[in-house]
Design goal:
The protein is α/β, with parallel strands linked by helices. The protein has 2 domains: 3-113 and 366-378, Enolase-like, domain 1, CATH 3.30.390.10; 119-359, Enolase-like C-terminal domain (TIM Barrel, Alpha-Beta Barrel), CATH 3.20.20.120. It is built from 12 helices and 14 strands. It has helices at residues 54-67, 75-83, 94-112, 116-119, 151-165, 179-192, 208-216, 233-242, 256-264, 281-293, 307-319, 365-378, and strands spanning 3-14, 19-21, 24-26, 29-39, 44-50, 127-129, 132-137, 169-173, 197-201, 223-227, 247-249, 270-273, 297-300, 350-352. The strands form 3 sheets. A 9-stranded mixed β-sheet has the order 3-2-7-8-9-10-11-12-13. The chain is globular and about 60 Å long. It starts with a strand and ends in a 36-residue tail after the last helix. The model has no long low-confidence stretch (mean pLDDT 97). The structure holds magnesium ion. Residues 201, 203, 227-228, 250 line the site of magnesium ion.
Length: 414
């Protein structure tokens, strides 16, 4: 098999409502780049990358002279070709390499008529459990619907998601409002959903002292873990000395150097594996093996996904034996997808691991074209800006919180 062509198509897919986080906001939509790697015999492997838009398209285009004619089965060689660790000091291509790894694995699966999870060692489970991923949300600019700001709105949203999709674990994305307010929100969730698991993630926005204060006040709840309560391995190590629950990270253990540092001097108990941040599905499987040896927990992280990236998360979740936590996904906030058949359906808080060859998802070409048009119409959005606080910068640690009494609706083009 030889690679004949590589295509990258930026798409914009709407969300139910803008998602607020410690660094700003997803402005009512996700921008993703869909990658297609075509072989000389006409097979097309699918990959996906976050954000990027026109610059991502140019990055893939620029790599074509180095990748055309290569065998997509030579995945280790491609890793060094794209993301050699010292060359990466000059060009950071980890996420590009991840998208191409997805596509090459998809090609191999199609050629061999097996699913990616079979290539990766064979599936241990046919369905992967997911947490409801709760965000504070601005109202939709056009409809005014979808706001999550008050305690009552948050609890109602969690209960509605549980009723609709069957989630029994709930993750709250915080770091938006004052920590005392978010503590009230989190404890209200625990009270409303007493038999469910919980996790909280302020995206590293707190000081160590604030993280300890918050952590100590939730020790009595059914916490899976507290995720990135402060930023940095040393900050987390200090929090861990004073707070009696597992800590997790998706920010400061995202490569093997950092994983080794965390093994030698443990700061974090649960490593959240992201198929994009780690450079592919296979690095995540390797990292899960290291975690298994050193008895660190693992879970599957979501950096925002459409169906292709979601498929990579499902195949990862299917093959790692030490996955004892529900995975995260932004997926249920989306109103549509680019894959044939539409969005993958939740049942009982789980998603089925695709069984078809390769990643097991295929493109809906009409939707790809339509959502590419949406990208051309709306352009990118600034992930690290808040539409209603134009001069605000996301400090770490932060003390410039949004006001939970602010009822304004942002004017975002839709
Ligand atoms: Mg996180």
């Amino acid at each position: 098999m030889r690679i004949r062509d590589i295509r990258a198509t930026p798409v914009t897919v709407p969300l139910e409502a803008p998602l607020r986080h410690a660094n700003g906001c997803h402005w009512g939509r996700f921008v993703r780049t869909i990658v297609e790697v075509e072989t000389e015999d006409g097979l097309v492997g699918l990959g996906e990358m976050g954000g990027g838009g026109e610059s991502a398209t140019a990055a893939f285009e620029g790599l074509k002279p180095h990748l055309l004619g290569r065998d997509p089965a030579r995945l280790e060689e491609m890793r060094f070709l794209l993301a050699n660790p010292t060359a990466s000091l000059y060009n950071n291509r980890t996420q590009v390499a991840a998208a191409l790894e997805f596509a090459c694995l998809d090609l191999l699966g199609q050629r061999w008529d097996v699913s990616v999870s079979e290539i990766l060692g064979g599936r241990l489970r046919d369905r992967v459990s997911f947490a409801s991923y709760l965000f504070f949300r601005y109202p939709h600019s056009k409809t005014g619907a979808g706001e999550v700001r008050t305690v009552d709105q948050l609890v109602a949203e969690a209960q509605a998601l549980k009723a609709r999709h069957g989630f029994t674990t709930h993750k709250l994305k915080g770091g938006v409002f004052p920590p005392e307010y978010e503590l009230r929100c989190y404890r209200a969730l625990a009270e409303a959903l007493p038999s469910d698991g919980l996790r909280f993630d302020p995206n590293g926005a707190w000081s160590v002292e604030q993280a300890i204060r918050f952590g100590q006040q939730i020790e009595d709840l059914r916490n899976d873990y507290l995720e990135d309560p402060a930023f940095g391995l040393h900050a987390l190590r200090r929090v861990r000395e004073k707070v009696r629950m597992p800590l997790a990270t998706n920010t400061v253990v995202v490569n093997f150097e950092q994983l080794a540092a965390n093994v030698l001097s443990t700061a974090v108990d649960v490593i959240l594996l992201d198929t994009t941040f780690w450079g592919g599905i296979r690095p995540c499987v390797k990292a899960a093996g290291v975690c298994e040896t050193f008895q660190l927990g693992v879970a599957v992280h979501s950096s925002g996904e459409l169906g292709i990236q979601l498929a990579t998360m499902l195949h990862l979740g299917a093959v790692i034996p030490n996955l004892t936590f529900a995975a995260d996904a932004h997926y249920h906030h989306l109103v549509d997808d680019v894959i044939a058949g539409g969005r993958l359906p939740y049942a009982g808080g789980t998603l089925a691991v695709p069984t078809g060859p390769g990643l097991g998802v295929r493109l809906d070409r009409d939707k790809l074209a339509a959502f590419h048009q949406e990208f051309r119409r709306l352009g990118s959005y600034p992930y690290d800006r808040d539409p209603l606080r134009p001069g605000w910068a996301p400090l770490v640690p932060n003390d410039r919180w949004a006001d939970p009494r602010d009822e304004r609706v942002p004017e975002i083009p839709t």
